[in-house]
Amino acid sequence: MMAFLELDKVSKGYGPASHRYEVLSDVNLAIEENEFVAVIGFSGSGKSTLVSLLAGLEQPDQGEVRLGGEVVTEPGPQRGIMFQNYSLLPWLSVYENVEIAVKQVYPSMKKVERRAYIQQYIDMVNLTNSEWKKPTELSGGMRQRLSLARTLAMRPEVLILDEPLSALDALTRAVLQDEIIRIWEEDRRTVVMITNDVDEAALMADRIVPLTPGPGATLARDFKVGLARPRDRTTLNFNPEFKALRNEVSGFMMDLNEEAKSLRVETTYRLPDVEPIDLVG
Ligand SMILES: Nc1ncnc2c1ncn2[C@@H]1O[C@H](COP(=O)(O)OP(=O)(O)OP(=O)(O)O)[C@@H](O)[C@H]1O
Ligand SMILES: [Mg+2]
């Protein structure tokens, strides 16, 4: 059966042939419509590269990315992407950064309605009263929240989030995790979320997909998250199923890391061959 969003034998590298760096190698992933998939992986393993391929900003060297059976060749409005570097427009205010996205997706929305709509998303990420600040006048966490608001406001069919909450304190992070889940439950859509946090993945996703350490990173196996919804974060820590899953995924990631380390070329230092002088006797 054809999946909704597919990565089919995707490989991607950078650099000239003489010193090519293979980032992703033979990546296969089939995501169902309305599924929430969390991709986890170590820093530098190729997660953002995966996002660029899903976005259609980069083309695979081999294989295909398909959405609804169609090969993805360019960015499209049905895929809302939140990039790790936030990609805000520096000359526009908080309000205008959301507005420009909303106008693009809902060109015929009436002015009054649009105002309320934009404000709703600004309030949701707690940027109320910062509407007229420019991105340079925001903290890192505020920029991340603005970027999230802008992406969510586009209400895309496929929501692709590259570490959307990584710069936030634990409390804000918890609030926005709940918001993302609420939005996803309210009007179902497909979500691919990159995260480096196993707990976050287990709390939010239907399925956790670890990316192996690069070079030549690939998706090893997946972990279904069978936890009933709605998931209550306050009791989850005591839920044996949650604890078992978290341990299983963390253990798997640590094994991957150990394996990768043993494959890396060891740097050995030759120590000077000297005997200590015996000062006493
Ligand atoms: N445009 C590019 N040109 C050359 N190399 C690139 C490019 N983009 C990414 N890379 C390389 O690909 C590898 C993976 O980078 P990527 O940003 O996908 O990792 P990541 O898993 O998102 O890391 P992080 O967790 O730190 O965000 C890195 O070695 C990086 O140097
Ligand atoms: Mg990244």
Model description:
The protein has a domain at 5-78 and 156-263: Rossmann fold. The chain has helices spanning 47-55, 94-105, 111-124, 140-153, 170-186, 198-204, 233-236, 240-263, and strands at 5-14, 21-31, 36-40, 62-67, 70-71, 79-82, 158-162, 190-195, 207-210, 223-224. Strand 4 and strand 5 (70-71) form a beta hairpin. By secondary structure, the protein is of the alpha/beta class. Helix 2 (94-105) packs across helix 3, helix 2 runs parallel beside helix 4 and helix 3 packs across helix 4 (140-153). Helix content is 36%, strand content 20%. The protein is globular and about 85 Å long. It has a six-stranded mixed sheet with strand order 6-7-8-3-9-10, sandwiched between helices. The protein has a four-stranded antiparallel sheet with strand order 2-1-4-5, with helices on one face.
What key attributes describe this structure?
281 residues, alpha/beta, Rossmann fold, 6-stranded mixed beta sheet, 4-stranded antiparallel beta sheet, 10 strands, globular, binds adenosine-5'-triphosphate, binds magnesium ion
User: What percent of residues adopt helix (DSSP H or I)?
Assistant: 25-40%
What is the β-strand count? 10
CATH class of the domain at 5-78 and 156-263: Alpha Beta
Rg is 22 Å
Overall pLDDT: 92
CATH architecture descriptor text of the domain at 5-78 and 156-263: 3-Layer(aba) Sandwich
Distance between the termini: 82 Å
Number of helices: 8
Give, in order, the helices and strands. Answer: EEEHEEEHHHEHEHEEHH
